[in-house]
């Protein structure tokens, strides 16, 4: 399922988180230099702190750029949801046409109209009804596929928001460790440890999303095949509204012969 309000809230959360994350990265080097400059910190340890800080900023900037790239497609699920809604409207209209052109709605029981003209009219109208029904079916399937894609996008960005929150929390701990009087190498390097775990989560989520969207592409290709199916669309086009036998509007029934040609 897809909720536009929930989706927009998740994207805002990610955008806000990236600003927070970027601000944290700017604090890492100063915090490390401050820690390394304390009188009781041996030079090798001080160099270790500085190295960790440099790597933290390097990795953090790469992650920041990665998230920015992933956000470039953030608007797509919203358009998918909107298009899904519109396709469902098309389904309703097409099915309405199909119903209006059905035999039971075209035949008037108390009429004395009968013969080949009546049969040809109903046959032609039946083809129109079938074509409209096929459009309704295609529109409905297209709508559901688009809605599923939008839902997959929402799930993907929820994962990103969760991972980013962990990155921010881990980096905050590392910065606090660098700025405190009591700190440890593992505590300061916590952010780098989180990166190793959570980048795998992002890669897995991205792969899952890509596989899902690939399946949806295959489904859309199948829908295209349905659209050009000659059973409802002869030669890939909309069926003719009349038959070749009655293309000149001539009606022959028993001894009667009424021709509208030229009138």
From TrEMBL:
Superkingdom, natural source: Bacteria
Keyword terms: Membrane, Transmembrane, Transmembrane helix
Membrane-spanning intervals of the chain: 144-165, 171-192, 199-223
The name this protein goes by in its record: Uncharacterized protein
Organism of origin: Pseudosporangium ferrugineum
């Amino acid at each position: 399922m897809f909720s536009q309000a929930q989706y927009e809230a998740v994207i805002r959360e990610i955008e806000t988180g990236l600003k927070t994350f970027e601000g944290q990265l700017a604090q890492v080097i100063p915090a490390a230099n401050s820690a390394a400059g304390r009188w009781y910190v041996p030079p090798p340890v001080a160099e270790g702190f500085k190295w960790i800080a440099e790597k933290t900023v390097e990795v953090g900037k790469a992650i920041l750029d990665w998230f920015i790239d992933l956000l470039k497609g953030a608007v797509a699920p919203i358009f998918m949801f909107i298009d899904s809604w519109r396709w469902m409207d098309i389904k309703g209209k097409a099915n309405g046409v199909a119903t209006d052109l059905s035999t039971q709605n075209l035949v008037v029981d108390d009429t004395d109209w009968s013969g080949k003209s009546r049969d040809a009219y109903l046959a032609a109208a039946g083809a129109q009804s079938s074509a409209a029904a096929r459009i309704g079916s295609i529109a409905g399937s297209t709508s559901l596929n688009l809605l599923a894609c939008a839902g997959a996008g929402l799930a993907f960005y929820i994962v990103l928001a969760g991972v980013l929150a962990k990155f921010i929390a881990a980096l905050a701990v590392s910065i606090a460790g660098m700025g405190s009087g009591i700190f440890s190498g593992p505590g300061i390097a916590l952010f780098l440890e989180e990166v190793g775990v959570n980048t795998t989560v992002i890669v897995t989520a991205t792969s899952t999303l890509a596989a899902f969207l690939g399946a949806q592409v295959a489904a859309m290709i199948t829908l295209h095949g349905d659209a050009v199916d000659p059973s409802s669309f002869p030669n890939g086009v909309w069926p003719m509204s009349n038959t070749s036998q009655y293309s000149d509007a001539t009606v022959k029934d028993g001894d009667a012969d009424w021709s509208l040609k030229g009138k």
